[in-house]
Amino acid sequence: MKNRIVLIVCLLLMLSVGEALQAEKKSPLRVVPSVDLDRYAGRWYEIARLPNRFQKKCAGEVIANYTRQADGNITVLNSCRLEDGSQIQAEGVARLAGHGQPNSVLKVRFAPAFLSFLPQVWGDYQVISLSPDYTFALVGDPGREYLWILSRSPRMDSATYDRLVAEASAQGFDAHMLQKTRQSGT
Question: How far apart are alpha carbons 145 and 23 in whole angstroms?
């Protein structure tokens, strides 16, 4: 019995080390050098995303609203339409990642505030591409698991979309897995 426990602990340790080594192999994302967070605030429509567990039930009309707060943080209000037509919302907060990172590198939390001290509740939100007029953005995480193409309007022309997909691919994202988001246009 004792040998089995030691074997299980060793296997779990090897898996953890393997995952850490895989994460280290990925190069950091090339992010935009600076973001005017006041201009970035406002409504963004999701044009496409890599599939993820927390948006699994979203059937369309995915919208993110960002509001700057006096403390420098950003309130994040995400909403989407479910298949039955009802709407759901998730409210969170974003903050600068710090540690010498540009302000295009943020941490986002949707967990309750009392869990803020746990690093695991903070997700990476990195602005990879941003149009000069702040009408579209490409956002992802350094693990290349999460990726969003965002626009200030519910529609995006195909040339811009294709350019953002190419940029995501060049940064190591599995861009052929992107799913376009249904938007009503309202």
Answer: 11
DSSP-assigned letters across all residues of 8-52: HHHHHHHHHHHHHHHHHHSPPP---S---HHHH-EEEEEEEE---
Six token digits for residue 43: 């409504």
For the entire predicted model, the pTM comes to 0.84
Strands 136-140 and 74-82: unpaired
Radius of gyration of the chain (CA): 18
Q: What is the pLDDT of residues 45-96, one digit of tens each?
A: 999 999 999 999 999 999 999 999 999 999 999 999 999 999 999 999 999 9
Domain ranges of the chain: 29-180
Q: CATH number of the domain at 29-180, please?
A: 2.40.128.20
Instruction: For residues 19 and 87, give the distance between their C-alpha atoms in angstroms, rounded to a whole number.
Output: 36
Q: Taking a C-beta distance cutoff of 8 angstroms, is the pair 123, 107 a contact? A: yes
Asked whether the beta carbons of 146 and 126 are under 8 A apart, the reply is no
**Can you tell me the distance from the alpha carbon of 51 to that of 77, in angstroms, rounded to the nearest whole number?**
19
Distance CA 15, CA 37 (A): 39
What is the token pair recorded at 24? 């280290």
Strand blocks (E) in the chain? 42-49, 58-68, 74-82, 87-96, 105-109, 122-130, 136-140, 147-151, 179-180
